[in-house]
Inverse folding.
């Protein structure tokens, strides 16, 4: 049986899912006509990996752009194989009849510039040298990621977006879309994100980078012919994992449970706690699917996120936004605290922007935009109605 | 001029200080009569470094025990040298006429077991082998630290404590004193501490340990003949430093300031942020004064802190306390959240313990018990009056 039949099978089995999906690629740029980054450095060639769910209408004005977080990918919905255990990360939000309704909208989900999941990044081969970029990859910004996405959309014939929506670093991209291309977007929905990255978030990012660089296998980014710096990247992820949760949820999930029932720590003071086991697992899982240099470049792009850059102030940047906006914060988020998002909401209201703020009541911390995505359906549905009218 | 004259000079120059101080040492234990730890392992010899401020009265019943945090030392007040820039860490609280009044009380401040500031720890020489313990040092607990302190006090002829007071890990010791030696203590004051360590705190501790162990110079703890794992220990401290502050204070102190005025990041996207410079400095400073293996053992002791151990429940442990208690929390503390301390306060009230809770209004996070120690003077003065009457 060919792919088409298998796709029909899975679509029948998952009636409210986009079903089987595949990665697509678009490449642009040449040595003579390179992509120019915000800092004036260049990339001779940029490939973007993306997924597309639902049909684009003839006027190409039914497109929703879904942007992902730090270690995310283009895989926002559906499955790659019928027997896969895993669906895309926003399976509850994207699909036929869902809040991002693929019967009506065409959802495009690109992997970011600097990434390692199909889009050009530091582990890509530099066409000018024939070797992986490593640390010769230029510093990139969230704005560069967005500018690459605009080029990709142009290649697809899309000149206007119905909505840009994403969580965490995906929210930074949504916000930048509203600021730098105000005439191209009807609506933006940045989730668990901010107008600029806080000092505390930069501090965690720097600790994560230092963890990678401390691993001797990192070898100043030149590890492509040897072993990857798994220990360093795993530690970076362990640190990140704490910031994606919250004190209450960690108490609920782990508390002081020992990792193994057969070795209760009352009897063995050296025993590992369950929370440690969890961090180790999270670290090891990331190592299998992510590149250490990408982690360095993308966390730096997050640090550099500041919509005011080039516009003089956050207010002046926000003033450019013409899109309707829904800002979502998470009560227990310790990475993008609600009060920062509330402040941006206040500023946007004062500027007369059509904006609303909704706060998710969740103990899950930053990760709630993934773990408890269903909670966002009511405010998102309301927002979709506001956009459509 | 001898030391005494110099001491008088400095005492004249610092009228409200304990002035010049010196480290003292007490050693106990032999191979035949070793110190037995909570987990039944033994130490053939334990040396404790301590400082003492003020005079012990003949009945030895005016002693205040001051216990320190993770990377602290016995140096709680005064100066080691007249020209030293640095005083002990609680200079505003300990001294003649101060809240811990050395005209009335004898303050004893010991360095903890497992440490590296004069008390036996993993960098000490094992008298049975003639080599540093390294990872052959047994796992220790907060309770072991307290049990060593009790032995030291016995050597000094002290059978009763007026007060045990300390912040962070020092607070854990104060609490354990109240629980395991209820008949020896009149009062306890645990500051920014908890009845047991939270999952989030254990998680941060494990990341810090992994940072040290990731450094190839750590060499499974056998680095005493080579270079110390400075990179790993510095990263551990960087992580810790974030948890000792708070989002609001980091925004105030650093925000998005670039590290160097001559390289504003608007023009150089690769520039280092000031918050990164601060973390690097904090990391490098700790490396000069702390031992990596001690960091591993002491953070593990913090993880294992749980006053319920051996008593069945936190309530049953708290029930043992006969001391008057003042619990202090810090509003912005993200390591020992006020709500955990409030819960302990509620439990203690229900058990009929003479306890009060005071919350410091500070943006400085966990570190406020050091940085804004003056703010604690009014509630501490009130508590001292409550003890005295």
């Amino acid at each position: 049986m060919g792919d088409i039949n298998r796709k029909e099978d899975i679509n029948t089995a998952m009636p409210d899912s986009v079903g089987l999906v595949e990665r697509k690629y678009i490449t642009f740029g040449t040595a003579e006509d390179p992509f120019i980054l915000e800092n004036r450095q260049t990339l001779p060639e940029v490939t973007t990996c993306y997924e597309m769910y639902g049909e684009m209408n003839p006027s190409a004005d039914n497109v929703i752009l879904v942007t992902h977080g730090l270690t995310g990918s283009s895989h926002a919905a559906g499955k790659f194989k019928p027997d896969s255990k895993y669906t895309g990360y926003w399976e509850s939000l994207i699909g036929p009849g869902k809040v991002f309704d693929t019967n009506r909208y065409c959802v495009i989900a690109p992997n970011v510039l600097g990434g390692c999941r199909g889009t050009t990044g530091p582990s890509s081969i530099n066409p000018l040298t024939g070797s992986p970029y490593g640390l010769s990859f230029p510093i990139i910004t969230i704005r560069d990621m967005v500018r690459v996405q605009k080029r990709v959309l142009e290649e697809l014939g899309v000149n206007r977006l119905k909505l840009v929506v994403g969580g965490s670093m995906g929210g930074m991209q949504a916000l930048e879309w509203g600021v730098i291309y105000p005439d191209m977007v009807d609506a933006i929905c940045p989730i668990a994100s901010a107008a600029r990255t806080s000092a505390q978030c930069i501090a965690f990012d720097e600790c994560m980078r230092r963890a990678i660089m401390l691993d001797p296998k990192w070898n100043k980014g030149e590890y492509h012919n040897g072993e990857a710096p798994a220990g360093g990247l795993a530690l970076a992820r362990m640190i990140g994992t704490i910031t994606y949760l919250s004190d209450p949820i960690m108490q609920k999930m782990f508390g002081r449970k020992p990792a193994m029932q057969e070795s209760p720590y009352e009897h063995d003071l050296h025993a590992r706690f369950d929370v440690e086991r969890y961090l180790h697992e999270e670290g090891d899982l990331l190592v299998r699917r992510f590149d250490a240099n990408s982690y360095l470049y993308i966390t730096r792009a997050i640090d550099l996120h500041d919509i005011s850059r080039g516009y003089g102030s956050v207010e002046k940047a926000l003033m450019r936004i013409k899109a309707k906006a829904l800002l979502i914060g998470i009560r227990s988020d310790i990475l993008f605290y609600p009060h920062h998002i509330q402040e941006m909401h206040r500023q946007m209201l004062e500027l007369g922007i059509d904006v609303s703020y909704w706060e998710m009541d969740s103990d899950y911390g930053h990760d709630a935009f993934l773990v408890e995505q269903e909670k966002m359906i009511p405010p998102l549905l309301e927002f979709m109605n506001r956009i459509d009218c």
In short: The CA atoms of residues 13 and 209 of chain B lie 43 Å apart. Chain B has two domains: 3-197+309-388, 204-298. The radius of gyration of chain B is 21 Å. Chain B touches chain A through 52 residues (CB under 8 Å).
